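Changelog note: in this version the structure field was regenerated for every chain. One regenerated record is shown below for reference.
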Amino acid sequence: MTDDQTYSGESLMMSGSTSRIAVLGAGIGGLTAAAALLRRGFQVDVYEQADELRESGAGLHLGSNGSRILHRMGLAGKLESSAVRSAALEVRAFDDGRVFMRQPMGRAWEAEHGAPYYTVQRADLLAMLATLVPERCLHLGRRCTGFAEDADGVRLSFERGPDAEADVLVGADGVHSVVRRAVAGPRTPVSSGNVAYRGVVPFDELPRLARDTMFVWAGPTSRLLAYPVASGRLLTFVAILPEDDEGAPESWSATGDVRTVSGALEGWEPAVRDIVAAIRTVGRWVLRDRAPLERWSTSRVTLLGDAAHPMLPHHGQGANQAIEDAAALALCLSQTPPGPHAFEQALRRYEIVRRPHTTRVQLGSRGSGSLKLRVPEPAGGRRPGSVLGSMVEDVAWIQSYDVEAVLANSQV
């Protein structure tokens, strides 16, 4: 499938420019959905509860499966200028910094999976996506308090401002989704037993680390992951530590204590100590997900991203799966012939294609990635580097996945 074919917008599109899509949430998934739908000729309104578009300063992994979609949407130049294509991933000993394994990335990864692998600051990616969505489509400071669906459409109510109407409502409103509770009922969080402390530090304070490499250190009970963002000016770090407060609220933006990180990583190799010394503030994210949903959609309402499939970060796929959802949803809506049940048919197809795939990714992320790494065993024992091959194998099928090509060839 070529980029021109992907976004030609030609008229398999039901209802053309008269179809109104409301997207609840202006995070990465919500803005990607809005951009994809606009490119296919739909009227789109995005409702965001915050008074401004904002993301945390931490970074994320943009795998080949996500970057191929964003390239098709015209963001290749912006990604190349502010994201980082790391040359390699290194697995290091926590105590003395020995390199157990170095996995080539960069051009080799792109050649194998068909698109680049980037690491990018969340705020940078959100800003890129915002350039694809006209201001007239964005409605900030609009906290949704509920919605009502009938045969003619969906009516949304807000804490501030007038009600709104749409033909379809897309719940891209995150892990605490208002839309999910209405569509699928309450879901109990599932604890992973871990908490992530994360943030960014300037590379100028890290003389021992290359700016084009991703790193993993495995300790006795903790792991530290780090990767470059912001054109190599900053290093994002994520320290995965045992959960120390089971009653802590589930929050994406909670603040943590730097002393907790420094205490957990005390005695680690000098490069890690450099990172710890450079930390000024740190976020705290209790790592919980939920059991996969049995359903995502009604006749005119559906879910996307974390609202549909909150997942642990060990595959680095949370944002990527939301981006795939967005592309798939826009394609399903645009390819459904007009008719009295067109929206319901489109949402059913979207769910049939996406739910099994995201379920597999979501469940796979529970015991994968750096969780497989353990402290080095005595001489002759299994080293952490020997696990890297299986870590790469765990994600290779995800990275090569092209959701638009799957839908183009689907008989569903």
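Spot check on this record: Residues 1-13, 376-382 have pLDDT under 50 and may be disordered. The CA atoms of residues 183 and 297 lie 7 Å apart.
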